[in-house]
From TrEMBL:
<keyword id="KW-0408">Iron</keyword>
<dbReference type="GO" id="GO:0140571">
    <property type="term" value="F:transmembrane ascorbate ferrireductase activity"/>
</dbReference>
<keyword id="KW-0813">Transport</keyword>
<feature type="transmembrane region" description="Helical">
    <location>
        <begin position="142"/>
        <end position="163"/>
    </location>
</feature>
<keyword id="KW-0472">Membrane</keyword>
<keyword id="KW-0479">Metal-binding</keyword>
<dbReference type="InterPro" id="IPR006593">
    <property type="entry name" value="Cyt_b561/ferric_Rdtase_TM"/>
</dbReference>
<dbReference type="GO" id="GO:0016020">
    <property type="term" value="C:membrane"/>
</dbReference>
<keyword id="KW-0349">Heme</keyword>
<keyword id="KW-1133">Transmembrane helix</keyword>
<dbReference type="GO" id="GO:0046872">
    <property type="term" value="F:metal ion binding"/>
</dbReference>
<protein>
    <recommendedName>
        <fullName>ascorbate ferrireductase (transmembrane)</fullName>
        <ecNumber>7.2.1.3</ecNumber>
    </recommendedName>
</protein>
<keyword id="KW-0249">Electron transport</keyword>
<keyword id="KW-0812">Transmembrane</keyword>
<feature type="transmembrane region" description="Helical">
    <location>
        <begin position="98"/>
        <end position="122"/>
    </location>
</feature>
<dbReference type="Pfam" id="PF03188">
    <property type="entry name" value="Cytochrom_B561"/>
</dbReference>
<feature type="domain" description="Cytochrome b561">
    <location>
        <begin position="1"/>
        <end position="163"/>
    </location>
</feature>
Length: 184
């Protein structure tokens, strides 16, 4: 789930910044990478619920409920992105109106995925420490804390790169040229 929703999705968010080539190429790569991230998330959820406990027994924590919300938002984002930006049936005015919301909800979902991963790390570590399987200052605790700090730093870098002024200026120019073309 971390690989799909955080690493692959983070790269997909930044594909418009680092990938050279046409807009169609960037949109194709973005859609494909987000689809791979979604497939990773579905596989992660399937493996969790494939156990003997069943679905309901796994929804008892903040982590599980945040994960469900994150998954639903991710599916909705992917479908809206596909229908609005990839599928040619939508009018250009619709795409211009949807784009800011798509960007916002994409970054929100990404941030929620990171927060969900952080709560999952905390939940697992707390259960291990409560059951006295690991001590508070052991190597496993330090690794889990290191992963948590690493995820927080990574999400900050991805979100900063996605909303940096250079990107915003380029996006504003594109939106201005789109609205200018529409008014002509």
């Amino acid at each position: 789930m971390v690989i799909g929703f955080i690493l692959i999705s983070g790269e997909a968010i930044l594909v418009h910044r680092w990938l050279p080539g046409s807009r169609n190429l960037k949109k194709s790569v973005h859609l494909s990478m987000q689809g791979l991230a979604l497939a990773s998330g579905v596989f992660g959820i399937w493996t969790k619920f494939h156990g003997q406990d069943g679905i309901v027994a796994n929804f008892w924590s903040l982590h599980s409920w945040m994960g469900l919300i994150c998954m639903l938002l991710f599916v909705a984002q992917w479908l809206i992105g596909f229908l609005s930006f990839w599928h040619r049936g939508e009018m250009r005015t619709t795409r211009v109106r949807v784009l800011p919301w798509h960007v916002f909800l994409g970054l929100y979902t990404y941030g929620l995925a990171v927060a969900t991963a952080e709560t999952g790390l905390l939940e697992k570590l707390t259960l291990l420490q409560t059951n006295r399987n690991v001590s508070k200052h052991c190597t496993e605790s330090m690794v889990v804390n290191g992963v948590g700090v690493g995820l927080a730093l990574l999400s900050g870098i991805v979100i900063l790169a996605a909303v940096s002024p250079k990107y915003q200026a380029l996006q504003s120019k594109l939106m201005y040229s789109d609205t200018k073309c529409l008014s002509s």
